[in-house]
Amino acid sequence: MTIETNIVHPDTTIRALMATIEAAPVKLCVLVDDTGRLLRTVVDGDIRRALLAGASLESPASTLPAQDTVYRPADTPRPDLIAALIENPSISAIVLVDADHRPTGLIARNKALSGILLSPPHLGQSESAYVRKAFDDNWIAPAGPNLNAFEVALRGASGRAHTLAVSSGTAALHLALRVLGVGAGDPVYVSDLTFAATVQPVLYQNARPVLIDSEPKSWNMSPAALERRLEKDAAAGCLPKALIVVHLYGQSADMGAILALSERYGVPVIEDAAESLGASYGNRPSGAHGLLSAYSFNGNKIITTSGGGALVSDRGDLIERARMLSTQGRDPAEHYQHSHVAYNYRMSNVLAGIGLGQLELLADRVARRREIFETYKAGLGDIPGLSFQDEPGGSQGNRWLSVISLDPDQIARHPYQLLRELRHEGIESRPAWKPMHMQPICAGCVFEPHSATEVVSSRLFLQSLCLPSGTTLSDDQQQRIIACVRNFTKG
Ligand SMILES: Cc1ncc(COP(=O)(O)O)c(C=O)c1O
């Protein structure tokens, strides 16, 4: 940061110091002697103490009591400066000095440590009004007008006739399995490369995940692996009770091929569209293709209710059954009677208010995430060995996360080294999901690879890194990230 606006001299009055602090972007004065050498810094607290000790507004800066100033040579590596700020919370800024001890720049705590998060929530103008309304109407419950309106609005976003808002995407997936009657020992096919939440509900039901590898372009369920597995299981007479296909990082799987196979073998498809709200496949929204689909409104998703999810379908009977199971499975009777083991999975009316405001912004959020992806592609796409998740023709991803993949034959350093370098710069990145066939919770599960010679999911896991993709990311911040990645790949 430039320092000119912060520089003052010993004869500057306390009144003028206060005006300088008020006007400067970094709230301190840097006091220098007649030759321009650093003497000390002055912050609000120094002035307060001087006034309490009897100084007046017209007293010169030279009367301020002595104080330690934190400075470093201007060529100190930036990670070391950031580390110094992290380690000592009382330092508000570090002054950089040249060999003659003249100030050349400032590292301000609030600027340097304003970290860049992977995918933080991004609220708009109207969420708080909907939440306020829930308070005003005293609908602080898992029922009420916001919840009803949110479910109606979700019909538009999902392209589905029936919607049920619940407490999480995981709960939505669990309800999908329950309404399809998945129980102990039933095989359920699941995309291998995903977050654990896709497979957990299968395990809640004591069912048996069968893990299907990715294909290399969209990184989603490989139709080739799916077909091979279905052929084998049909021959053995153990076809799955359901198939959960994930739309990874907001990019739809090849639903044409997957639905054709599911129809051929009579297997119902559940879409795990937790990450893909606002994306499309063919002319329909992602999540409008299988029998049932689940969305997530977790805080890191493209829109959020802080925590929440939804189950959607064109089959009203399935959604009504899920609604019953999401509210403790009460029978239609005046008294409290329960014939089903069920759950407390409904979304709160308060949180649905956040969702209503967020849904109004969905198209903008998708457009911005796609723009962020394109900027990464423009800034990094020429690096040999660096590639991105494809967007096959006929689909449009929401680019929830922009993910890069580094080919070890061309880039010697591992993505986790990049993760650490970015972390040092206050930039959050994350590894790609670790495939389910490599997870302890899926030990012993059948895994069907993309081909006899290629496992795609574990390669993507080992080579890929998710970059900050949130819609609050500024252009400057993104350029900083691009510079870090370019620098890393040169190393
Ligand atoms: C692919 C996938 N499935 C399911 C979930 C579960 O959603 P939730 O966190 O709302 O339970 C998530 C996100 O967290 C996800 O990324």
Question: Could you describe the 3D structure shown?
Answer:
The chain has 491 residues and is α/β, with parallel strands linked by helices. It folds into three domains: 4-112, CBS-domain, CATH 3.10.580.10; 127-359, Aspartate Aminotransferase, domain 2 (3-Layer(aba) Sandwich), CATH 3.40.640.10; 362-490, Aspartate Aminotransferase, domain 1 (Alpha-Beta Complex), CATH 3.90.1150. It is 35% helix and 17% strand. An eight-stranded mixed beta sheet has the order 7-15-14-11-10-8-9-20, with helices on both faces. The longest helix is centred in the C-terminal third of the chain and has 19 residues, at 362-380. The mean pLDDT is 95. The structure holds pyridoxal-5'-phosphate (PLP). The site of pyridoxal-5'-phosphate has 14 residues, from α7.
Assign the CATH superfamily of the largest domain. Answer: Type I PLP-dependent aspartate aminotransferase-like (Major domain)
**β-strand amount:** 15-25%
CATH topology tier name of the largest domain: Aspartate Aminotransferase, domain 2
Q: Strand tally, please?
A: 21
Helix content: 25-40%
Overall shape: it is globular
- Provide the domain count: 3
